[in-house]
Write a structure and sequence with these properties.
Length: 121
């Protein structure tokens, strides 16, 4: 049985999930928390948060690339991004749930099918 450290896809997914949490906060939390501050302050704080995103994302892609193509990594990243962004948007930013999130998710499922179909079949 493979452990997390032995399975590059599982390791990449776990690291990308954590990376996306930092990325989402870096890109969007300033809209709620720093809207009263000058944009340069928000940008500098966001860059500081984004550093942690890159410290997870770069190894995730290197590990993932041992088992997946770049296209597969990119689609995986987009699915994870939407999976993190929607709850963040709903619960942290208090944005309303939109049916468009469902349609976007369905489009991404189609993308997942096409880039991973050679691995499944």
């Amino acid at each position: 049985m493979l452990t997390l450290a032995q399975n590059p896809v599982t390791s990449a997914v776990a690291l990308l999930l954590c990376s996306n949490v930092f990325m989402t906060f870096a890109w969007y939390a300033h809209l709620k928390e720093l809207s009263h501050k000058p944009w340069i302050i928000a940008a500098l704080i966001s860059w500081g948060i984004a550093l942690f995103e890159y410290l997870l994302q770069v190894p995730a892609n290197r590990i993932g690339h041992t088992a997946l193509s770049v296209g597969q990594l990119k689609i995986l990243q987009e699915v994870i991004t939407l999976s993190v962004f929607v709850p963040f948007s709903l619960f942290y930013l208090k944005e309303p749930l939109k049916l468009d999130y469902l349609w976007a998710g369905l489009c991404l499922l189609g993308a997942v099918y096409f880039v991973f179909r050679d691995k499944v079949g």
